[in-house]
Amino acid sequence: MIEKLKQFLNFHAQELPPEEKAKHLNVAAACLLLEVIYADESFSAEEANLLPELLSKALKLNSNEVEQLISDAKRKQKKSTSLYEFTSEINEQCSIEQKQQLILAMWRLAYADGHLCQYEDHLIRRMAELLYLKHSELIQMRNLALKTL
Fold first, then answer.
1. Predicted structure pTM score
2. What is the pLDDT of residue 76?
Protein backbone atom coordinates (compact mmCIF):
# COMPACT_ATOMS: atom_id res chain seq x y z
CA MET A 1 0.00 0.00 0.00
CA ILE A 2 2.73 2.45 0.96
CA GLU A 3 4.72 1.51 -2.14
CA LYS A 4 1.73 2.33 -4.37
CA LEU A 5 1.36 5.70 -2.67
CA LYS A 6 5.06 6.44 -3.28
CA GLN A 7 4.68 5.50 -6.96
CA PHE A 8 1.62 7.73 -7.26
CA LEU A 9 3.42 10.69 -5.70
CA ASN A 10 6.54 10.16 -7.80
CA PHE A 11 4.46 9.94 -10.98
CA HIS A 12 2.72 13.23 -10.24
CA ALA A 13 5.94 14.91 -9.14
CA GLN A 14 7.55 14.32 -12.56
CA GLU A 15 8.02 17.41 -14.66
CA LEU A 16 5.57 17.86 -17.53
CA PRO A 17 6.75 19.08 -20.93
CA PRO A 18 6.44 22.89 -21.31
CA GLU A 19 3.58 22.69 -23.83
CA GLU A 20 1.63 20.41 -21.47
CA LYS A 21 2.25 22.75 -18.53
CA ALA A 22 1.02 25.67 -20.64
CA LYS A 23 -2.11 23.74 -21.60
CA HIS A 24 -2.87 22.91 -17.94
CA LEU A 25 -2.36 26.55 -17.02
CA ASN A 26 -4.66 27.81 -19.78
CA VAL A 27 -7.38 25.34 -18.79
CA ALA A 28 -7.07 26.37 -15.14
CA ALA A 29 -7.40 30.06 -16.01
CA ALA A 30 -10.38 29.38 -18.29
CA CYS A 31 -12.05 27.33 -15.54
CA LEU A 32 -11.76 30.22 -13.10
CA LEU A 33 -13.23 32.61 -15.64
CA LEU A 34 -16.09 30.19 -16.23
CA GLU A 35 -16.69 30.07 -12.48
CA VAL A 36 -17.26 33.82 -12.52
CA ILE A 37 -19.64 33.56 -15.45
CA TYR A 38 -21.71 30.86 -13.78
CA ALA A 39 -21.68 32.50 -10.33
CA ASP A 40 -24.89 34.43 -11.00
CA GLU A 41 -26.55 31.37 -12.57
CA SER A 42 -26.95 33.07 -15.93
CA PHE A 43 -24.79 33.11 -19.02
CA SER A 44 -25.45 36.44 -20.74
CA ALA A 45 -24.64 37.19 -24.36
CA GLU A 46 -22.17 39.85 -23.20
CA GLU A 47 -20.28 37.30 -21.12
CA ALA A 48 -20.41 34.73 -23.91
CA ASN A 49 -18.84 37.24 -26.31
CA LEU A 50 -16.29 38.61 -23.87
CA LEU A 51 -14.83 35.29 -22.67
CA PRO A 52 -13.35 34.21 -26.04
CA GLU A 53 -12.07 37.74 -26.62
CA LEU A 54 -10.29 37.81 -23.25
CA LEU A 55 -8.78 34.36 -23.78
CA SER A 56 -7.70 35.14 -27.33
CA LYS A 57 -5.94 38.37 -26.33
CA ALA A 58 -4.32 37.08 -23.16
CA LEU A 59 -3.16 33.74 -24.53
CA LYS A 60 -2.67 34.73 -28.17
CA LEU A 61 -4.89 31.94 -29.47
CA ASN A 62 -6.95 31.77 -32.65
CA SER A 63 -10.72 31.27 -32.53
CA ASN A 64 -10.53 27.47 -32.97
CA GLU A 65 -8.00 27.16 -30.15
CA VAL A 66 -10.16 29.35 -27.91
CA GLU A 67 -13.24 27.23 -28.62
CA GLN A 68 -11.28 24.07 -27.77
CA LEU A 69 -9.91 25.66 -24.60
CA ILE A 70 -13.40 26.67 -23.43
CA SER A 71 -14.69 23.18 -24.19
CA ASP A 72 -11.81 21.58 -22.25
CA ALA A 73 -12.36 23.98 -19.36
CA LYS A 74 -16.07 23.20 -19.17
CA ARG A 75 -15.31 19.48 -18.98
CA LYS A 76 -12.62 20.00 -16.35
CA GLN A 77 -14.84 22.34 -14.35
CA LYS A 78 -17.68 19.80 -14.20
CA LYS A 79 -15.30 17.24 -12.66
CA SER A 80 -13.73 19.65 -10.18
CA THR A 81 -14.50 19.70 -6.50
CA SER A 82 -12.87 23.00 -5.52
CA LEU A 83 -11.21 26.13 -6.80
CA TYR A 84 -7.93 25.04 -5.26
CA GLU A 85 -7.02 22.69 -8.10
CA PHE A 86 -7.14 25.63 -10.50
CA THR A 87 -5.60 28.30 -8.27
CA SER A 88 -2.73 26.02 -7.24
CA GLU A 89 -1.81 25.53 -10.91
CA ILE A 90 -1.82 29.29 -11.42
CA ASN A 91 0.18 29.92 -8.23
CA GLU A 92 2.85 27.48 -9.40
CA GLN A 93 3.34 29.04 -12.83
CA CYS A 94 2.27 32.69 -12.77
CA SER A 95 3.77 35.95 -11.61
CA ILE A 96 1.90 38.49 -9.50
CA GLU A 97 1.26 40.58 -12.62
CA GLN A 98 -0.25 37.60 -14.46
CA LYS A 99 -2.49 36.84 -11.48
CA GLN A 100 -3.58 40.48 -11.42
CA GLN A 101 -4.47 40.29 -15.11
CA LEU A 102 -6.55 37.18 -14.43
CA ILE A 103 -8.43 38.98 -11.65
CA LEU A 104 -8.94 41.94 -13.99
CA ALA A 105 -10.46 39.59 -16.57
CA MET A 106 -12.75 38.18 -13.86
CA TRP A 107 -13.96 41.67 -12.94
CA ARG A 108 -14.55 42.49 -16.61
CA LEU A 109 -16.65 39.34 -17.00
CA ALA A 110 -18.57 40.07 -13.80
CA TYR A 111 -19.48 43.55 -15.02
CA ALA A 112 -20.10 42.50 -18.65
CA ASP A 113 -23.85 42.15 -18.16
CA GLY A 114 -24.16 45.59 -16.60
CA HIS A 115 -24.27 44.73 -12.91
CA LEU A 116 -22.23 42.94 -10.29
CA CYS A 117 -23.98 40.05 -8.55
CA GLN A 118 -23.08 39.44 -4.90
CA TYR A 119 -22.03 35.89 -5.78
CA GLU A 120 -19.66 37.12 -8.48
CA ASP A 121 -18.16 39.63 -6.07
CA HIS A 122 -17.69 37.02 -3.35
CA LEU A 123 -16.18 34.50 -5.76
CA ILE A 124 -13.65 36.94 -7.21
CA ARG A 125 -12.61 38.03 -3.72
CA ARG A 126 -12.18 34.39 -2.71
CA MET A 127 -10.11 33.61 -5.81
CA ALA A 128 -7.90 36.64 -5.17
CA GLU A 129 -7.21 35.27 -1.69
CA LEU A 130 -6.39 31.84 -3.11
CA LEU A 131 -4.02 33.51 -5.59
CA TYR A 132 -2.30 35.31 -2.70
CA LEU A 133 -3.15 38.78 -3.96
CA LYS A 134 -3.49 41.72 -1.60
CA HIS A 135 -6.86 43.36 -1.05
CA SER A 136 -5.46 46.57 -2.56
CA GLU A 137 -4.55 44.67 -5.75
CA LEU A 138 -8.07 43.24 -5.90
CA ILE A 139 -9.59 46.73 -5.63
CA GLN A 140 -7.12 48.17 -8.13
CA MET A 141 -8.11 45.53 -10.70
CA ARG A 142 -11.82 46.16 -10.04
CA ASN A 143 -11.34 49.88 -10.60
CA LEU A 144 -9.47 49.21 -13.85
CA ALA A 145 -12.31 46.97 -15.01
CA LEU A 146 -14.86 49.67 -14.21
CA LYS A 147 -12.89 52.22 -16.24
CA THR A 148 -13.10 49.98 -19.33
CA LEU A 149 -16.89 49.71 -19.23
1. 0.88
2. 96
